[in-house]
Amino acid sequence: MNRPVALLPRAPKPDLGSRLVAAAVACLLFMLDAAVVIADVAPARAKDPVYGWVLYNYHQGEALKALTLLEVARERGGIRGHGAYPELVEGGLMLSYGMPREARDLFTRLLEETKATDTQPDINESSAGERGADSGVTLAPGIRSQAWFYLGKVFYLEGDYPQAHENFQKVDALVLEESNSELYAEWLYLRARLAMLSDSDNSSYASSHESPRENPSMNASGKTLVEYLRAQLKHSGLWAHYLSYNLAMAEVTAGDVEKAQQSLRKLISGMEGETPTNHRNSEYRALLDKSRLSLARLYLRETRFNDALRLLGAMPLDSVFSDTALYDYAVAAAEQGQLQRALDALEALSQRTLFLSWREQVPYARGYVLEQLNQPRKALNAFAQASEHYESRGRELIATRQSLTEESLMARLSFLRNNDDIATDAYGRLRVMPSDFGISDVLATEPFQQALSELNELYQMRALLIRREGQLGTFETMLETRRVQRERRSREARFELEQQKAEEWVEQQTSFRAEIEAALAAEDVGFFMTTKQKELKARLDRVAATLAQLRDGSLGNGNSAEHQRDKYARMKAYFDWTLANDYGVNRWAAQKQLRELNAEMQQFESQRAAIEALMSGDEKHDELAGRLIRKGEDIQSLKAQVQEAIAQARSILMERLDKALEQQGRELRRYLVASRHAQARLADQLFRAGQNAEAANE
Fold first, then answer.
1. What CATH number was assigned to the domain covering residues 11-171?
2. Measured distance between the N- and C-terminal CA atoms of the chain, rounded to whole angstroms
3. Which of 550, 572, 569, 549 shows the shortest CA–CA distance to 561?
4. 287-291: which pairs have CB atoms within 8 A and are 24 or more residues apart?
5. Domain residue ranges of the chain, discontinuous segments joined by +
6. pLDDT (tens digit, 9 = 90+) per residue, 1-48?
7. 3-state SS, residue 550
């Protein structure tokens, strides 16, 4: 008897795949709620714009973008004003993006930091929120217990049972029960499953560290850990029923079929007398139908066909297990001798549109039942139809395997889309239905779903890299435009410089400096005269020239030439004295102007040199161009890696589908051989019966 797969939350293989996403979503949601509800001073809005963008992308389902923003923010100094809550968000994003070990390490570190903070004597509840706003994070006891529970659940789903038990043991049972009764029931259930998965019910790692406060009477009562936890789950609804079913399956595995039947009968009786809540009704009914089916199969093993028929006949036709129940009903009816009822069940099953690989036995079983009904001609026809069906299906499988490509596979799948992206369910699996139900069994397997999801993620990453490559091409166009504009401006600037005749200015400045330096060396007073003094000297020179032309004697009006010459001499003497007196001031003014001219010329030369340097080359442009080249090389490298990963994922996907189709082909060949043998046997019987009838007539 197989254990349930579709209903019971039991541990998967070490290959995690998308099963961890359920824990990821729950863990992330409760962490975010903690940031808003529990923290004393949690911000009402994002204090850091980057954090707002991260949350926006998270709610849009863009885990890769949100993780990228967090990494960029970390490189630029981190997100301010939100403490460790961005790290909690990052942990949830890691889980949802298929990075369980990294997320596990991050959550463990944060919870350990919280534990270390609690041990500090100077920390109280009122200061916890303040500290959590800027450093670290402090979670309330209820949220902390939930955190340890979710972390333990991640280990449980990963198959690391000792680590799962260790984290479950850090949960405060009383606090968890008070804060979230549903999680408390699931915690009890998972601990019971851990005990069942050990060598005995009294597991060395599951029962040796029980808390006396949690179970003070366990040793005195002599109960095993599983029995104790089952008693704790007695009134917890669906989780208790899950545990009861798994215990019954464990009894089947141990060979105690009678006890397993009693357990299943008790479970069915208890569930039939309950009224489930609306949001758990479908899950409740599915577990009830699975329990009935399992008990009926135990009855079939013990040839209790009437009991099996009674159970199978009570199952609804719209159940998820109705097809299996119909086939088992046909088997029980045939073994009981009620061949017509068996044939009716097979006829109903053959009319179902949904195809599953195990139903390939239905055409052969139909012929078998007709043969048992002593209808050899109908049975021969049924076996002939079965042979044709198996031959046709075999050819289809061969053609499918020969033409198996990714395109042909995707053509057989119908994806549900959300805008332009493929929608996913709560477990991170792609929401897809088979257009060809022949691959429904393969599509339902966890490895195939994981490979399909990984291939979709790789295609998204490749599309992202292509977009980034296009953006780099846009930047290259922008740089080329900038280069052309710069060359144009350089030509204009060079023309302006030529029009300014800078060389002549330099020559004049050099000439001025040389003349002033020569005048200083010679102490040339006349060189440093002011404009007014130069005008006065010119007037005196003109008077001297006029006096030189006059003859001695009277000039009229009581003046004489001698008198004018004496007056000029006195004016000339006064002028010379003024020049001598103002020499220092005039010299200093000339030197000041020279210094200002030198400073202006130096600034002019430096600006001219800077302009020449800018025109000769552009370091910023070269730096940007170099960065674009490096980024382009990085993108090409990443594209090559992604393409290689896509090829590997595609190969894994095709290999798994090919193996499944090969297995179906082997099953078809078995049924084909059996149908042909039965067809030959019946044909021979009818031939012999015909010969005997002819002989009797003769």
1. 1.25.40.10
2. 57
3. 550
4. 287/7, 287/238, 287/241, 287/242, 287/245, 289/315, 289/316, 289/319, 289/320, 289/321, 289/322, 289/325, 290/4, 290/7, 290/245, 290/321, 291/245, 291/248, 291/264, 291/267
5. 11-171, 501-617
6. 333 222 223 233 333 333 333 333 334 333 434 333 333 344 446 677
7. coil
